[in-house]
Amino acid sequence: MSHRLPAAAGAAALVCVVVLAPPAARAAGLAATQAVNSGNTAWLLTSTALVLSMTLPGLVAFYSGLVRSKNVLSVAMQCFAIACLVSILWVAGGYGLAFGRGGALQALIGSPAAGWLGSIGRNALHGTTPVAAFAMFQLTFAIITPALVIGGFAERIKFSAVLWFSGLWLLLVYLPVCHWVWGGGWLARLGVLDFAGGIVVHVTAGVGALVSALVLRERKGFPHLAMPPHNMTLTILGAGMLWVGWFGFNGGSALAANGSAAMAILVTHLGASAGALAWMSAEWRKFGKPSVLGLVTGMVAGLGTITPASGFVGPLGGVIIGASAGLVCFSATQVLKRRLLIDDSLDVSPVHGVGGVLGTTLTGVFVAAPLGGVGYAVGMDMLRQVGVQILGVVSVGLWCAGLTYVILKVLQATIGLRVSEDQEREGLDLSQHGERAYNE
Questions:
Q1: Which parts of 224-349 are beta strand (E)?
Q2: In terms of CB atoms within 10 Å, which of 102, 177, 232, 339 comes out highest?
Q3: Which domain holds residue 194?
Q4: Burial tier of 433 (Cβ tally within 10 Å: 0-12, 13-18, 19+)
């Protein structure tokens, strides 16, 4: 394969892989079982818009402000292009691989729905909402997960490599894991609790970013050259969009406008608030001053960590899980960058990855009824659930790490991963896209 292979050809090839996959006998939720509920449908559609806004423009603004001015457009371009590529792959067969039912490998992977979701009609229902609404809602999760990963290799990767990596990573990592946890796969059968994506989104994105940072290695000058965010105002704006969008991320995962959705939104807000305050306090104590960057990063850590627990715990769990996220993820960031000198450019692995692991594990604790959760009494049931949660984290982490490494090494040996030193010095905006974010 030539190192000059156009990115468009790569995207087209990935689409063909999915389109040519064998059709499913039946996709999940295609049969209408009860009347459509307009309130639930309205909430799911609203949540879909909220979650998409987390990537476009939320993550675009958040990431763009964190990189240097010469790389602003590159991360924005990557987020937009990933959204487009994943959308086509999802409709071409990705949805069926994640949520399709039937077949000998049902515990491991679903089956792609017949040709471009052609068997989904306007009246087909998933529970009390249209299948089209459910498929679109889940698509927004499939979009943001590989978009989060780009923070691990920002400012040094070829744009063509981003497209190939994101498409292959979606097919080989995200879709199987999504099926295991949410599509009736083997982890779902074991009873793993992941309300809105602690494992499916945050563990996979965090592990993917960490492996990417290790394979691509550090940016030129790291850690001796200061590489501060070029526009904190833009980052704060993006962080605010993420906070609001997360209400759809977690609240929408109830798939209904009910008490579970309301509680999920409440504990999501509490987790974000506690995470921000805890991170700020830890940073203030360690460095003598609280920073805006620390405050918003702690907020994101709190949001990511409360995600798997959001529909299962009460306000007490939301506050404790959020505060734990701020303290633990702050410490993880210090260890990763200052001690291990791993250049996870935008702190995806210590914030999303560690947060996902922490939140998924603590879900097994705070789901207990005496602690305000919806589950069981404290005792052996709690220990059993914590064990299942840890099994889910470890198995998904190993799967994601292994497949991410293989994908990156194959791309490194074929089209190449990194831009040249001159191109990195010039900045990806000009070297990859021929544009500047700021024309002085």
A1: none
A2: 177
A3: 35-420
A4: middle
Residue 295 lies in a domain: yes
pLDDT in tens, 35-53: 899 999 999 999 999 999 9
The reported pTM is 0.91
User: How many other C-beta atoms lie within 10 A of the C-beta of residue 38?
Assistant: 11
Residue 391 lies in a domain: yes
Q: Is residue 19, in this structure, part of any structural domain at all?
A: no
pLDDT at 328: 98
The pairing of beta strand 26-27 with beta strand 125-126: unpaired
pLDDT reported for residue 115: 59
Helix, strand, coil content of the chain in percent (nearest 5): 70, 0, 30
- Are 23 and 102 spatial neighbours (Cβ–Cβ below 8 Å)? no
C-alpha distances in Å from residue 67, one per residue of 169, 416, 440: 23, 22, 18
Within the chain, how many helices (H) and strands (E) appear? 19, 4
CATH number at residue 64: 1.10.3430.10
Is the CB of residue 392 less than 8 Å from the CB of residue 202?
A: no
Residue ranges, the chain, pLDDT below 50: 1-33
- Closest among 249, 233, 234, 247 to 145, alpha carbons compared: 249
8 Å CB contact between 280 and 295: yes
pLDDT for the residue 121? 80
Q: Distance between CA 398 and CA 223 in Å, rounded?
A: 28
Q: Which residues pair with 130 in a beta bridge?
A: 125
185 in any annotated domain: yes
Model confidence pLDDT, tens digit, residues 317-326: 999 999 999 9
Alpha-carbon span 321 to 26, nearest angstrom = 39
What is the pLDDT, as a whole number, of residue 14?
A: 44
Domain count, the chain: 1
